[in-house]
Specification:
Layout (H helix, E strand, L loop, with lengths): L7 H4 L3 E5 L2 E5 L1 H4 L3 E2 L2 E2 L5 H17 L1 H12 L11 E4 L2 E7 L2 E4 L2 E5 L4 E8 L6 H27 L5 H6 L10 E7 L22 H4 L9 E4 L12 H8 L5 H7 L3 H4 L3 H9 L4 H10 L3 H27 L5 H14 L4 H12 L3 H12 L4
Parallel strand pairs: 9-10, 10-11
Antiparallel strand pairs: 1-2, 3-4, 5-8, 6-7, 8-9
Helix pairs in contact: 3-11, 8-11, 12-13, 14-15, 14-16, 15-16
Length: 373
């Protein structure tokens, strides 16, 4: 599992660059990749962005090869029990469980032919305190739909032999397809909401020791994206989880996106990764400019660096700051290193922006590079 550094310390810090006796301020809001069409991310429609997560992530996970691997890794310890060619997608909509918000509908429901089992996957970007009850309803709804389907067939065929069978809506020999549901948590960190029905029931009091054994619990199976082992996967789910586990480490993401495996991702995989990285401008750039994810990410990094430096230079000139040249260059070296730039790239950045001689730029990089953890 990858351990990625958080760049919040970079985002909270004011750094500077300077040259020719002029100092420049590098503001924290310029370090965030968060501007598009002149608007900050805070001004972008949140509902539209959340809708994109559903639009791109659900069909990505619903591809049978990925779906099968996700179930095999998390239910069958990596054994190839679920075969993609044996999977059929089902509707997963339950009118019998309708509410004022509409019918209950699963994100993804598949049936495997042999052995015959139905698997559901619910995609969650936020915790849900009522998830045990919700999954219990989904599973109950699936069994109810099977009972209704069988009952209708028996009535049409007039195959009920007794009143008890007709009342039960099933024959004594009827058996139904088992249902297993996985909650795939795509939010950051651990799933901190209840994962058992018992955890949302009030069971305190003296009588608890007597009645608790009669209460039926319902445990849900939660897969936490930040805690899975990407190496357990052999489809592009490996890259999907690798990227999500580094969503707050821009330098590490930059390194990942330079790998051949990321450069060759399918378009649907790129969209599913990008929309879950908490970088709204990345998905906008990919959509509007029809640009591959890795290239779009690199351009955003460069654009934000340029914006920050240019604004800083203007503010530096306006404020007449002429001191702290060495401290400012050190800050630039530190910023470049944390964003994944090499020594040579950092030297070139100093030369281009500050008009220093190559030997002077190299000396500054050599002087400050080792001081940065």
């Amino acid at each position: 599992m990858l351990v990625c550094e958080n760049l919040s310390s970079v985002q909270e810090r004011y750094t500077g660059i300077s040259g020719s006796g002029v100092s420049a301020i590098f503001h924290k809001d310029e370090l965030n990749i968060g501007w598009t069409n002149g608007k900050s991310l805070l001004e972008q429609p949140e509902r539209s962005y959340m809708g994109k997560k559903d639009t791109y992530t659900t069909p990505y996970i619903a591809k049978r090869k990925r779906f099968a691997e996700l179930v095999n890794v998390n239910i069958y310890n990596g054994k190839g029990i679920v075969k993609e060619e044996m999977l059929t997608r089902l509707g997963g909509c339950y009118p019998a469980l309708s509410s004022p918000a509409g019918n209950k509908r699963r994100d993804i429901l598949m049936e495997q032919k042999d052995p015959r089992i139905r698997y559901g996957i619910e995609l969650e970007t936020e915790i849900d305190y009522g998830m045990p009850e919700r999954i219990m309803l989904y599973d109950a709804g699936e069994y109810e739909s099977q009972i209704r389907e069988n009952d209708q067939k028996h009535r049409e065929d007039r195959s009920y032999d007794t009143y008890v069978e007709k009342k039960s809506r099933m024959k004594e020999t009827d058996r139904f397809v088992p249902v297993i549901t996985i909650v795939l948590y795509l939010g950051e960190g651990r799933w901190t909401a209840p994962d058992k029905l018992m955890e949302i029931l009030e069971t305190s009091g003296e009588s608890e020791e007597y009645f608790k054994e009669f209460l039926q619990d319902y445990k849900i199976h939660v897969v936490e994206a930040d805690l899975v082992k990407p190496e357990d996967y052999h489809t592009d789910l490996k890259e999907f989880f690798l990227a999500l586990q580094c969503r707050n480490d821009r330098g590490r993401l930059r390194e990942l996106f330079q790998r051949e495996s990321f450069q060759n991702l399918s378009h649907d995989a790129e969209l599913a990764i990008a929309v879950n990285l908490n970088l709204k401008t990345l998905i906008v750039k990919m959509e509007e400019e029809n640009m591959p994810m890795c290239k779009a990410f690199e351009e955003l990094m460069m654009e934000q660096e340029e914006i920050g430096m240019e604004r800083g230079i203007k503010e530096g000139i306006k404020e007449g700051i002429k001191e702290g040249i060495k401290e400012s260059i050190k800050a630039l070296v530190e910023t470049c290193k944390e964003f994944g730039a090499s020594r040579e790239e950092t030297e070139n950045r100093i030369i281009m922006k500050l008009s220093l001689l190559p030997t002077d730029a190299r000396n500054y990089v050599n002087q400050y590079w080792g001081d940065i953890l």
